[in-house]
């Protein structure tokens, strides 16, 4: 059995927040596959089975900081080996529009992952690290002193927004910046701006394509 877990917080208020990109990737995957959905109370999760590839797609419903409870239950029940476990999560150590898939390596701080490490007793599984860091760009747009400018080569396609000026105002207001760097804990619970959603959509597509090749051969298979 292979297992893909997308981390996030349940509930409508969190749907479009940066912390929920793991859920967004799972939603993109199930939209491209024929899966059987189940609410598994014993796992405290929404579980989607792709029978042909023997893969479970999981959205824990425990809230982020208790993700280990759900992941530990699913891993234990199906006896999933660590090299078959993929955990998709937001990552403040990677710029918005970029991602990395690395075994045993995650961000410096992530409470959901810490909960999983404690439950499994290891971090030696695949981390699907979806970058969400954009605070330097937002500060630049707001006219404040930049804390961190985006840099590096994007692995995913990014779209150019013709209304960047308007969206830059959205970006500043959405994270409530007034020349002060917002904390990571507050930032991850803020929704993506319209401009950011375009960039996130591109990277989510790239992530699902790569996972599709690794796990399913390609996307669009049957049951």
Can you offer a commentary on this structure?
With 223 residues, this protein is of the alpha/beta class. The chain has one domain: 3-Layer(aba) Sandwich (Rossmann fold), CATH 3.40.50. Helix content is 36%, strand content 21%. It contains 7 helices and 7 strands; from the N terminus they run βαβββαββαβαααα. It has helices spanning 21-32, 67-78, 111-120, 135-142, 164-174, 184-187, 194-216, and strands spanning 2-6, 36-40, 45-50, 55-60, 85-95, 99-103, 126-133. Strands 2-3-4-1-5-7-6 form a 7-stranded mixed β-sheet, with helices on both faces. β3 (45-50) and β4 form a beta hairpin. The longest helix has 23 residues, at 194-216. The radius of gyration is 17 Å and the shape is globular.
Number of domains: 1
Task: Determine the N-to-C terminus distance.
Answer: 15 Å
Outline:
globular
Mean pLDDT: 83
The fraction of residues in strands falls at 15-25%
Which strand order spans the largest sheet, edge to edge or round the barrel?
A: 2-3-4-1-5-7-6
Count of DSSP H/I helices: 7
Please provide the count of β strands. 7
Which regions are unreliable across 5 or more consecutive residues at pLDDT < 50? 139-178
CATH topology: Rossmann fold
CATH class: Alpha Beta
For CATH, the homologous superfamily is named as Peptidyl-tRNA hydrolase
Helicity range of the residues?
25-40%
Report the sheet with the most strands, covering strand number, pairing sense and barrel closure: 7 strands, mixed
């Amino acid at each position: 059995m292979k297992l893909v877990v997308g981390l996030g917080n349940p509930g409508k208020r969190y749907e479009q927040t940066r912390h929920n990109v793991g859920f967004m990737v799972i939603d993109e995957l199930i939209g491209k596959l024929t899966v059987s959905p189940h609410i598994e109370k014993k796992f405290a999760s929404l579980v989607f089975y792709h029978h042909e590839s023997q893969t479970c797609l999981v959205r824990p419903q425990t809230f982020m900081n208790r993700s280990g409870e759900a992941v530990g239950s699913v891993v234990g029940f199906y006896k999933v080996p660590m090299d078959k476990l993929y955990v998709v999560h937001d990552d403040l150590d990677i710029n918005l529009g970029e991602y990395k898939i690395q075994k045993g390596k995650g961000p410096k701080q992530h409470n959901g992952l810490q909960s999983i490490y404690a439950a499994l007793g290891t971090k030696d599984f695949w981390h699907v690290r979806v970058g969400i860091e954009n605070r330097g760009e937002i500060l630049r747009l707001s006219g404040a002193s930049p804390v961190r400018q985006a840099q590096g080569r994007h692995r995913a396609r990014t779209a150019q927004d013709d209304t960047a000026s308007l969206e830059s105002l959205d970006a500043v207001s959405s994270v409530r910046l007034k020349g002060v760097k917002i904390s990571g804990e507050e930032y991850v619970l803020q929704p993506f701006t319209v401009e950011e959603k375009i960039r996130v959509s591109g990277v989510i597509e790239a992530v699902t394509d790569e996972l599709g090749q690794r796990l399913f051969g390609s996307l669009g298979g049957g049951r």
